[in-house]
Amino acid sequence: MLMRPTKLSSLIVSGYSSQTTKSEIKRNAIDRIRANRPILDGLVGYESTVLPQLEHAILADHDIILLGERGQGKTKLIRSLVELLDEWVPFLVGSELNDDPSAPISASGRAIVERDGGESEVGYMHRSQRYSEKLATPDTSIADLVGEIDPIKVAEGRYLVDENVIHFGMVPRTNRGIFAINELPDLPERIQVGLLNLLEERDVQIRGFKIRLPLDLFFVASANPEDYTNRGRLITPLKDRFGAQIRTHYPMDAATEIDVIHQEARIDPPEGIELVFPEFMEHVVANFAQFARKSPSVNQRSGVSVRMSIAAYETLSAVSIVRALRLGESVASPRVSDLVHIGPAVSGKIEVDALEDAEEFQVISKLMSQAVLATFREFVRHDTLAGVTSSFDEVSFDVGSDLPGDSYRTALLDHPELGKAAFELVGETDPAMMASAVELILEGLHLSKRLNKHSGVGETTYFAK
Question: What is the pLDDT of residue 232?
Answer without folding.
Answer: 47
